[in-house]
Specification:
Structural class: alpha/beta
Number of strands: 15
Order of helices and strands: HEEEEEHEHEHEEEHEHEEEE
Shape: globular
Number of helices: 6
Helix content: 10-25%
Largest sheet: 9 strands, mixed
Strand content: 25-35%
Length: 258
Amino acid sequence: MSATLAALVADLAAGRLRVVDLTQPLGPATPVIELPPIFGASPPYSEEVISRYDAQGPGWYWKTIHLGEHTGTHFDAPVHWVTGKDLPNNTTDTIPVERFIGPACVIDVTAECVLDPDYLLEPEHILAWEATHGRIPAGAWVLLQTGWSKRSDPAEFFNADENGPHTPGFSKAASELLAYERDILGVGVETVGTDAGQAGGFDPPFPNHTIMHGAGKFGLASLTNLDQLPPTGAIVIAAPLKIVDGSGSPVRVLAITE
């Protein structure tokens, strides 16, 4: 074992490093994104017991689950969006595994989102964060901390009215800066998707999906516990299921931090 790996094992065992679970529980109560009825809908999570120490299987317990790829805390692969459909290695089974791991840059806009649920991260906000914490490195996960995961009521989580959902996200210019000028791995959010709730009416519609996936970047949605991470210094591991031709998958997102 290399000295680096030996030190990692020793630091984890001694409690000098901490593993933070950034994943929401996955079950029948998990909120699922709602689209206008003209589009296909992702099904709610459902499950069926195959056996539980009974006549169907006296010594074992297991069940069948039914859900969409983008349910709960999940990973968006580039092929998820039309702009990324022709890129190489754009599905969950073909993305090189080393790209699932990277340093975390946590941008905390919780206070801003309390005042404005439609808050958009802009380039000037990113530059202000960098002035304090340093330039976002290539290959980083940029995680937008909004406090949204604290909303346990689905109605508050989706925060929708007659004009649709009102949730924070990224402006087109911010997405372009992160994808093209910082060359990040991808973005992570506490909301149900990586675009703002009103992003269907933006130009282009859903700019974060359009730009990030077109650039071969990834998305992580429905994260939690971002308030347990420092602005920099943590490492995030977000490995989706190896679904053949998968557009994404539920994912257990872990962060290692001091």
